[in-house]
Amino acid sequence: MIYAYAVDFRVASYNVENLFDLKYEGNEYKEYIPNTAYGWNRKAYNIKLRNIAKVIKEIDADIIALQEVESRDALHDLRRHLNYRYFLISDKKDSSIQNAILSKYKISYSQELPIQKRGYRNILEVHIKIQYKTLILFINHWKSKAGAESGRIISARVLKKRLDNLNKKSEFILLGDFNSNYNEFKTFKKKRRLNDTDGITGINHILKTVKNGKIVTWDIFKSQNSRELLYNLWLDVGKKERWSHIYHSNRGSLDNMIISKTLANNRDIEYKKNSFNHFSPDWLFYRRTINRWQISRKQPRRHLLKGYSDHLPIYADFSSR
């Protein structure tokens, strides 16, 4: 079937920060073991579900990738507050939290790209049908910066191997929490704790968002014939706005959305230039920082039944022609 009209749609990504269900499975973080002194109980769970659902409703995305969802049950319970027909979640047994997706468009295929190391999260590959075209999403949640860059390179190499095996006409987005800045090759260089790779980064060097030591700009992206080069959508906003996370007062772009050249060639599915941004209404902030889900610092530590996540969502608009 050939469609005579274009369909505009929005893709988003959101690390929802520890959306655990109320079943005890043994992999939970101690604060989220249900019905203990920490107060992770039915009341807390329902408030967290409503708060996260409020954010997702306001973004108004047709497709949203999620990180830090514990289980299919948690995803189901979140979905009950929302209007998404299709959904998926990864299932790595030794991971406390998973990658997931909610979509208003049909999911035609999915698989997990396994990261064969304990405690690492699998990458969730999802094929979505929009009109008669296929958009491929790779949902990521790489190892945190509690560890060095070599840990994130493990995930980057698994992802790159899969990208190299795709049909050259494939249209894809890499998105999620990479625990890496869009310009990680610059920001981590002088940090010995992170730089155990002689300056090589997963997000920039392995995924080819830099070329000859320089970030791949839109002009480079459009002018180069190489389909290996990828474009990080953070470059579509001003430098001061390139952040989605705050750690010790430092802003970082840990959440990323990276597109293939086929999404910028004026054919089939197309990225709508300059539509990317973080979602940042005033109510997602408290005292100049992100209004994350609150757990008391004083003993005994308890869930305070307010807040959202320690990440801001990111989003971008696309058109299927």
Show the helix and strand layout.
Layout: E1 7-19, H1 42-59, E2 63-69, H2 72-79, E3 86-89, E4 98-103, E5 107-113, E6 123-130, E7 133-141, H3 149-164, E8 171-177, H4 184-187, H5 202-206, E9 210-211, E10 214-215, H6 218-223, E11 231-232, E12 245-247, E13 250-252, E14 255-259, E15 269-271, E16 277-278, E17 285-286, E18 289-290, E19 314-320
Parallel strand pairs: 1-2, 7-8
Antiparallel strand pairs: 1-19, 2-4, 3-4, 5-6, 6-7, 8-14, 9-10, 11-14, 12-13, 15-19, 16-19, 17-18
The structural class is alpha+beta
- The number of distinct β-strands equals 19
Query: Helix fraction?
Result: 10-25%
Low-pLDDT residue spans: none
Overall body shape: globular
**What is the count of distinct domains?**
1
CATH topology grouping:
Deoxyribonuclease I, Chain A
CATH class: Alpha Beta
Quickly count the helices: 6
Q: What order do the helices and strands follow?
A: EHEHEEEEEHEHHEEHEEEEEEEEE
Q: What separation lies between the terminal Cα atoms?
A: 13 Å
The Cα radius of gyration reads: 19 Å
The percent range for strand residues is 25-35%
CATH architecture title: 4-Layer Sandwich
The largest pleated sheet is described as: 7 strands, mixed
How would you name the CATH homologous superfamily? Endonuclease/exonuclease/phosphatase
Mean pLDDT: 96
Summarize the structure.
By secondary structure, this protein is α+β, with helices and mostly antiparallel strands. 18% of the residues lie in helices and 29% in strands. The mean pLDDT is 96.
General description of the model:
- The protein is an alpha+beta fold and 321 residues long.
- It has a single domain (9-320), classed as Deoxyribonuclease I, Chain A, CATH 3.60.10.
- It contains six helices and 19 strands.
- It has helices at 42-59, 72-79, 149-164, 184-187, 202-206, 218-223, and strands at residues 7-19, 63-69, 86-89, 98-103, 107-113, 123-130, 133-141, 171-177, 210-211, 214-215, 231-232, 245-247, 250-252, 255-259, 269-271, 277-278, 285-286, 289-290, 314-320.
- The strands form five sheets. Strands 1, 2, 3, 4, 15, 16 and 19 form a seven-stranded mixed beta sheet that branches. Strands 5-6-7-8-14-11 form a six-stranded mixed beta sheet.
- The radius of gyration is 19 Å and the shape is globular.
- The two termini are 13 Å apart.
- The model has no long low-confidence stretch (mean pLDDT 96).
